[in-house]
């Protein structure tokens, strides 16, 4: 297995008719997402237009049965990894307009929103994926040099619209997700991998962990405090549970020469 795969380990042309939905977005004829393989979840992979710090690791996350979407200029990141989105969503201002007819003719669904809108292209893509039945979402290219975009993208994980869908942001060997009250999650990675817990929108109450160097047994992590930063896995997995609140869970950030195996 290639090193990048170890580090990531998890992850017909149709005639198109233009229609105008009530929200004002122009959309090509709807092509439904693929049916998931029996016994598996429908996983959507959304490419955003941010930075890919380690393209080989991100490429190794992709699975053959993923439903690939691009949030506007995320198309460029998808192509960089050899992925072919079946849906492109946004105001499409980051895509050469001369290339749009060819994309539509090849069977790509184009969901075009006005440039003056209340949501980012990524938020629109997340909403679309959930509406179409995605049960898990992996977002690549959501982080970058702009702090406003990076923070906004991370906070999208806390959206109530995503409450029933496990959603991840990934960049190289790092993963982010949100844990809601009443949930628990088990993450797999080598011993020594960094895991941090950041409360969102208030204190996180009743935090329980297993498999971490600094254990928590029902404690409260205070909002805007750093107690949950830089914990580490003792072995190959760790479990985090939460009674009340919201926790941003980050996994990764090991030494550059250390392999990382994470799910997804």
Detailed description of the structure:
By secondary structure, the chain is α/β, with parallel strands linked by helices. The chain has two domains: about 1-170, Thiamin pyrophosphokinase, catalytic domain (Rossmann fold, 3-Layer(aba) Sandwich); about 175-264, Jelly Rolls (Sandwich), CATH 2.60.120. Helix content is about 15%, strand content about 30%. The protein has helices at about 5-10, 55-60, 75-80, 100-105, 120-130, 145-155; strands spanning about 25, 45, 65-70, 85-90, 110, 135-140, 165-170, 175-180, 185-190, 195-210, 215-220, 230, 235-250. Strands 1, 2, 3, 4, 5, 6, 7, 8, 9, 10, 11, 12 and 13 form a 13-stranded mixed beta sheet that branches. The longest helix has 11 residues, at about 120-130. Mean pLDDT is about 85; it is low at about 10-20 and about 255-264.
Q: How do the helices and strands line up, and which of them pair or pack?
A:
Elements: H1 3-8, E1 26-27, E2 43-47, H2 55-61, E3 67-71, H3 74-80, E4 87-90, H4 100-105, E5 109-112, H5 121-131, E6 136-140, H6 147-155, E7 166-171, E8 174-180, E9 184-188, E10 194-210, E11 217-221, E12 231-232, E13 237-251
Gist of the model:
It contains six helices and 13 strands. The chain has 264 residues and is α/β, with parallel strands linked by helices.
Whole-number total of structural domains: 2
Mean pLDDT: 85
Proportion in helices:
10-25%
Compressed to H and E, one letter per element, the order equals HEEHEHEHEHEHEEEEEEE
Radius of gyration: 19 Å
Distance between the termini: 17 Å
| CATH architecture identity of the largest domain | 3-Layer(aba) Sandwich
Supply the CATH class of the largest domain: Alpha Beta
CATH topology of the largest domain: the name is Rossmann fold
Strand composition percent: 25-35%
| Uncertain stretches of 5 or more adjacent residues | 9-22, 254-263
Overall spatial form: elongated
Structural class, please? alpha/beta
Number of helices: 6
Biggest β-sheet description: 13 strands, mixed
What is the number of strand segments? 13
CATH superfamily of the largest domain: Thiamin pyrophosphokinase, catalytic domain
